[in-house]
Structure formats: C-alpha cells, structure tokens
Design brief:
- The chain is 27% helix and 27% strand.
- The protein has nine helices and 17 strands.
- The strands form four sheets. Strands 7-11-6-1-4-5-12 form a seven-stranded parallel β-sheet, sandwiched between helices. A five-stranded parallel β-sheet has the order 14-13-15-16-17. A three-stranded antiparallel β-sheet has the order 8-9-10, covered by helices on one side.
- The protein starts with a strand and ends with a helix.
- The relative contact order is 0.12.
Length: 340
C-alpha cells in the first residue's frame, strides 16, 4: 500500500534499459518516503529469465505476469494488468518509460484510474505543496519536473489528490545503478487470468519488425555534437572525421536535424536523446535550454563557438572561441598525428 511502482518494459526476455534507470530512481524515491519499491513485468515465457535483471536495482517486490498473448505488447492486456493491480495495491507513485509502449500504456492506465499523468519528465523529486486557494497543505508529493512552452520554462507539476501519481521518463534521463543496500527481493507470479479480460486478446500482432539502433549515443564516452553553426551537411562530415579519430559518436542539435544535415536519431535534447558522456564537444551549438536538457550532465563540456556570448559557453568547462571551419580541421590533424 502506498508504495512506489515501476512498470518494466521488455523485449522478449530482455528488460529495457529505461526501466532499470527508473528502478534506480524509484528506489531513491521509495527510500525518501520510507516505503517499498515494487515492479511489474508482463510477457510470454519470462518466468526465471527477467528476475535477475530487475531485483538487483533494489526491488522489494516483483510481480511477474507470464502468459500467452502478453508478448509482443498490445495495449489492452497490459492495461488490464496495471489497472487491476493498482486497484489492489494502491501505489502512491507509478513510473513508466517514455517509449512507444510507455506513451501508449501510461495514458490508458491513468485515464482508467482518473489519476493524471505527466509525460517526459526530466527530474523527479519529493516535496511539500501548499494549495493556497483551498488552504490545504500536502506532505511528500512527487514533484514531476519537465520543460514546458517549448522548453522556455521548467514546470513543476504536482498531483495532490489522485493516486497514483504517474510520470513517464525518457531513456537516458536517469542513470541506472545497482542498489548497494538491502531490499526484500520478493517475487510473485500472479494468475494472469484474474487480471486480464479474455476479450483484451482480440488484437494480435501478425508481423513485427524491430530495427537495431544505428548508433550508440547513450553509451558513448565521447560525443561530438554539431549545431546550426556547422553550416551544412558537409560541415557534419568534418564532425564524423573528428569522431572517428576520437572513437566518439556524433550528435546534433534540433536545428541541425531540422535542416536535414543529419538523421533524427542523432538529435540530443528535450525531444531527442539524453546523453551522459565523459566528454561532450559542442560544435557550433548556441545552447538553447532544449538542447542543454539532453547533455548538461556530461563530465566535461567543451564548446567550440564563434560567439563568445553563446549560452552553451556558460555551462562549458572549456571554451574555444573560433569558427568550426578553423578549429575542427586543426583538431582532426592533431589527433591523427598523436593517435598513432
């Protein structure tokens, strides 16, 4: 009762990384509230194959729903499972990944439970809230923090009266870490037929294609990222040359992606990928808040920009004031000579 729940997304028998990130954050929230962290996973043939991917993140109780028709994911059965389980367990917080599945499942569950949902959160914190209009005070609410109005402000959203407080978080926003404390680690295998209406299996997946990621932006130790200041697609060719010498991945700002200079799957920021590299090299990027939201936790930030007053320079550890046309070829030449 009143615990923190995380819905764990899977691909066959592999737990999604975003779910492990949410388990790490969920454990911290549960500790702060003095409650248990619980997790739920649903699929076909997963019993005994997913527990070791979930329990080490500090889970006190894991619900494994294993049954035919639960994989590949379809909306209705998974909605039935969460809605009926939440009615029984009455969690105070429920977290899902802001993935294709999470964006489909979260609104269905929150609508059924009339609980509300905040999408694409960048931070989750516990805090108090004073409702001055109704003269009410609330303790230990979930602060659901996300950019709003095109990223021009950061909004803190609370849900005082309805439970669970639901939020989705994009992959890479939180950092996963195995839990070093002690958790109960209980696992239960509920009877799926008690939770899912047989009519919910009416929709079946006939054919399914999953395409592997073309890059490893999230896992890269070094990211070389370009903005509108790169000037052209040919400008990005220089970044790929530099990335090759540094054994790095190439990222981009939304402006560069919108200009058609690089593929969308390399976009970093609020509406793209969130990265946590050891080194982030920002080339010709002005540094709007939407972009900074996706890379501000990098270990070292290096900015290459002809504008000394560019916003990105304020968060950069090192600033190279110059044009990308002058600076990047020199970097390529230097690393070529010194990497042999």
């Amino acid at each position: 009762m009143n615990n923190v729940f995380v819905y764990c997304e899977i691909e066959k028998t592999t737990v999604a990384e975003v779910s492990q990130e949410l388990l790490t954050k969920g454990r911290k929230l549960a500790n702060e509230l003095g409650v248990d962290l619980e997790a739920v996973v649903a699929g076909t043939g997963i019993k005994g194959k997913v527990e070791d991917q979930i329990l080490p993140y500090g889970v006190d109780k894991l619900y494994v729903f294993d049954g035919e028709g639960l994989f590949p994911y379809t909306s209705a059965p998974h909605t039935d499972i969460l809605v009926n389980l939440f009615k029984e367990e009455k969690p105070q917080i429920a977290l899902l990944g802001a993935t294709v599945i999470g964006r489909d499942l979260g609104p269905r569950v929150s609508s059924s439970l009339t609980s509300g949902l905040t999408a694409d959160c960048t931070q989750l914190e516990i805090g108090d809230y004073d409702d001055r209009k109704n003269n009410k005070h609330y303790d230990h609410l979930l602060y659901q923090i996300r950019p709003a109005f095109g990223g021009n402000i950061v909004a803190t959203i609370v849900n005082p009266d309805h439970r669970p407080q639901m939020a989705t978080v994009r992959s890479g926003v939180m950092q996963k870490a195995l839990y070093e404390g002690k958790a109960k680690g209980e696992v239960v295998y509920p009877d799926v037929t008690k939770y899912v209406d047989p009519a919910s299996y009416a929709v079946q997946v006939i054919d399914r294609h999953v395409e592997a990621a073309k890059n490893n932006l999230k896992g890269a130790a070094i990211v070389v990222s370009g903005g509108y200041g790169m000037g052209s697609k040919e400008g990005f060719d220089m970044l790929f040359q530099l990335a090759k010498e540094l054994h790095a991945e190439v990222g981009a700002s939304r402006a560069a992606v919108d200009a058609g200079w690089v593929d969308h799957d390399r976009q970093i920021g609020q509406t793209g990928v969130t990265v946590h590299p050891k080194v982030y090299i920002a080339c010709g990027i002005s540094g709007q808040i939407q972009h900074i939201a996706g890379m501000q936790d990098a270990g070292i930030i290096i900015s290459i920009n002809s504008d000394p007053d560019a916003p990105i320079n304020k968060i950069a550890d090192y600033v190279i004031n110059g044009t990308v046309e002058d600076v990047i070829p020199k970097l390529i030449k230097y690393y070529k000579q010194n990497s042999k």
